[in-house]
Write a structure and sequence with these properties.
The protein has 6 helices and 11 strands. The chain has 230 residues and is an alpha/beta fold. It has 3 domains: 71 residues, no CATH class; 49 residues, no CATH class; 92 residues, Zincin-like. It has a 4-stranded mixed β-sheet with strand order 1-2-4-3. A 4-stranded mixed β-sheet has the order 5-6-8-7, covered by helices on one side. Strands 9-11-10 form a 3-stranded mixed β-sheet, with helices on one face. The chain starts with a strand and ends in a 5-residue tail after the last helix. The structure holds zinc ion (ZN). The site of zinc ion (ZN) has 3 residues, from loops.
């Protein structure tokens, strides 16, 4: 395996095989390593300049491939929704929809062996349900705040897939983001994150006054928020 160090610090790793191909071919793998085949006429210098020129394409293609790979490793037997685990049942039907009931996630599809597609159908149902839940909890928090005499800025909750935080609040813009991964946690845990972000409208840092505010408005804050793990 060889490496090309780019001026910006990124590293392209590649394996070179000499083959009687017309000029040069390359294939990108999910591990980020580029498999290059080139005829013996093509110099290593030329190959490395070419790969360096296409660095952005190589990195984004490798990222797409590894995302696809992690999806196929996904467990499609069970889904987590609001702190409970539901088995997935695939039912042959052309409705092409996933429906969650009290006991199971039913996926109606004629493409039952297409894992990526099944994952998408399930995710769509979870995402819709989670958006509805967040809108409902948003209304609940706002009602409770105004009943206690406080007026929060108009807030629409944006749901995002975030890597390292459960929520965020741009208090000067009146904008709250909630991590979509919270859909797997209990309803009260989701509520605790929404309360946390609302509290930042009045207390920008995590001071004792911030937690006192939370405990006043949502006394079970710690009980439910402590369930969160990254
Ligand atoms: Zn915070």
């Amino acid at each position: 395996m060889k490496e090309i160090k780019l001026p910006d610090g990124r590293i392209i790793r590649y394996e070179l095989t000499r083959k009687p191909v017309a000029n040069i071919n390359f294939r990108i793998k999910a591990d980020g390593v580029v498999r290059v085949s080139a005829s013996s006429r093509v110099t290593v210098g030329y190959i490395e300049r070419l790969l360096a020129q296409r660095a952005d394409y190589i990195f984004s293609a490798a990222e797409r491939l590894s995302e696809r790979e992690s999806r196929s490793e996904l467990n499609l037997d069970r889904v987590n929704w609001l702190g409970k685990e539901y088995p997935v049942r695939i039912i042959r039907s052309s409705r092409e929809v996933a429906v969650l009931d009290e006991t199971e996630m039913r996926v109606f599809t004629i493409r039952g062996d297409d894992r990526e597609y099944l994952f998408e159908l399930i995710q769509r149902t979870i995402a819709d349900g989670f958006a509805t839940l967040c809108a409902e909890l948003n209304g609940q928090v706002r009602r409770e705040l105004s009943e206690s005499g406080l007026t929060p800025p108009p807030t629409r909750i944006a749901i995002k897939d975030m890597r390292s935080r459960w929520g965020s609040c741009s208090y000067n813009k009146g904008h709250i983001s909630i991590n979509s991964r919270l859909a797997a946690y209990p309803r009260e845990t989701v509520l605790s994150v929404i309360w946390h972000e609302y509290a930042h409208y009045w207390h920008h840092d995590h001071s004792p006054a911030f937690y006192a505010f939370l405990e006043r408005h949502f006394p079970e804050y710690h009980k439910w928020n402590d369930k969160l793990k990254f």
